[in-house]
Amino acid sequence: MTDRLRLEAQIEARAQEIHTDAYPMSIGEIMSIYRDKELDIHPEFQRFFRWSPLQKAKFIESILLGIPIPSLFVSQREDGVWDVVDGVQRLSTIFEFTGILRDKDGNTKPACSLIGTEYLPELEGMWWDSQQNPDSSFPDSLQRDFKRQKVDLKIIKKGSDENTKYDLFERLNTLGSKLSDQEVRNCLLVMINVEFFQWLQELAEDDAFQTTIRLSDKAQEERYDLELVLRFILLSSADPQSLQSVKDVDAFITKGMRSIASDQRFDREAERGVFESTFRLLNEAAGEDTFTRQDGGRGRGGFLISMFEVIATGLGYRIRTNPGQLPEVDAISQVIGSIGDNADFRRYSRSGMSASSRMPRLVPLGRELFAQT
Q1: Residue 26 forms part of a structural domain
Q2: Which residue from 37, 47, 159, 236 could staple onto 316, CB 3.0 to 4.6 Å apart?
Q3: What pLDDT, in 10s, does the model give residues 205-216?
C-alpha cells in the first residue's frame, strides 16, 4: 500500500470514530435546556476563564446587534446531557446576565448588570430583570428579541470515540487562546476526572512545595504550580528512554495527565507520600532557594525549571525507588549546592536549549546525583 493510500485509510478510519450534528438553536432554547440541567458548562471552569465586565458587555452587545458569534461545541454524554466543549465563557455570560447561572454547588448566582459599550453606551447599568429598579431592566420586547437570536451548535454525538471531546477541547482552546497550557489542562481534567483535579490541587497547596517553588503572582494565577505537580509525578516515574522521543513537552504533559487521570490503578496515596516527602526534605535542605541559580552554595534569582527538572524529579525518583531509606538533609543540600558547577547541567540548561532537548538529559542527571544520598 502506498503512503497516499495509507493516509486515506487512516482518515477514513478516524472519521468513522466521530459522529457529529449541527443546527442553529435560539438562546431561549439553550437557556431552557440549561435550566433543566441538560447542559453542563462545568462551573469549575469559571476560575480559568477571566472575561472582564467590558468583554461580557460587548458579547451581549453582539447578540443584541445580530452580529454572528462563533459556534458552540457540545458533546453528548451517555445520559443525554450535553457537555460544553467550547463556549463556556459565552454561555456563562448569557446565564449570568439573565440570572440563571449556577455555581458548582448548584446554587443560582446573583445576576450581573452591564457596562456601556462603544456602540451601545445606554447599556450602562442595565439588568435583565431588576425588581428594585424596573427602569433599568430590559423591556419584554428586548428580552424576547434576545432569546430569539440563533446560535450555531456543533454536537459530538453519542457513539463517538471517548477521547474526541477532549481532543477537540484542547485544540479549540490552544489555538489563539489566552488560557495558559495548564489552564487548558485543568479544564480537561475537570471533564475527565474532577476528583483527580481536586487531588492535584491538594498537592499544589502543600506548604513545603509552595515555599520551594516560590512562583510569581502571574504564574500562580495561571496555575503553573499545578503544572509543576504534574511534571514531578510524570518525570520522577518516567522511563528515561521514553523521554528521548519527546518532541513537545506540553503535549507530553497533557498526554501523561490524561493517562494517569483515567487509570483506575493509579495509587494517589502512594504518590502523595512520595510528593510530600520530596518537598519536605527539599524545604528543610534549601527552602525558597531550592530551584534558584546556585552561586557559592546560595540561591540567586527566581525559579528555574531546569533546576526543578534535576532536583525535584531526581530526589523524587530516589524516594520512589527507596521508600524505606530517606536521604539525609545535609546530603540533599550538598547536591543542590553543587549542581551549578556540574558540566552536564551547565551544558543542557544554557539559554536557547529547548525543553525537549533539555529534559531527556537533566532528568537522568538528577537521578545520578541523588543515587548516592
Answers
A1: yes
A2: 236
A3: 999 999 999 988
Nearest to 199 by CA among 105, 254, 269: 269
Contacts of 358 by beta carbon, 8 Å cutoff, 6+ apart: 306, 309, 348, 349
Is 172 within a domain?
no
Strand partners, 23: 153
Domain count, the chain: 2
- Write down the pLDDT at residue 3: 67
Are the C-beta atoms of residues 91 and 27 closer than 8 Å to each other?
no
Q: Could you give the CA distance from residue 82 to residue 29 in angstroms, rounded to a whole number?
A: 13
By three-state DSSP, how is residue 131 classified?
coil
Grid coordinates belonging to 81: 446531557
Strand, helix or coil for residue 175: coil
Per residue in 50-98, pLDDT (tens digit) is 688 999 999 999 999 998 888 888 888 888 888 887 788 899 999 999 9
34-63 in b/e burial notation, b at 16+ Cβ within 10 A?
Answer: beeeebebbbbbbebbebeeeebbbbbbbb
Q: Would you mind telling me the total number of residues written for the chain in this entry?
A: 373
Query: Which of 148, 147, 111, 102 minimizes the C-alpha distance to 129?
Result: 111
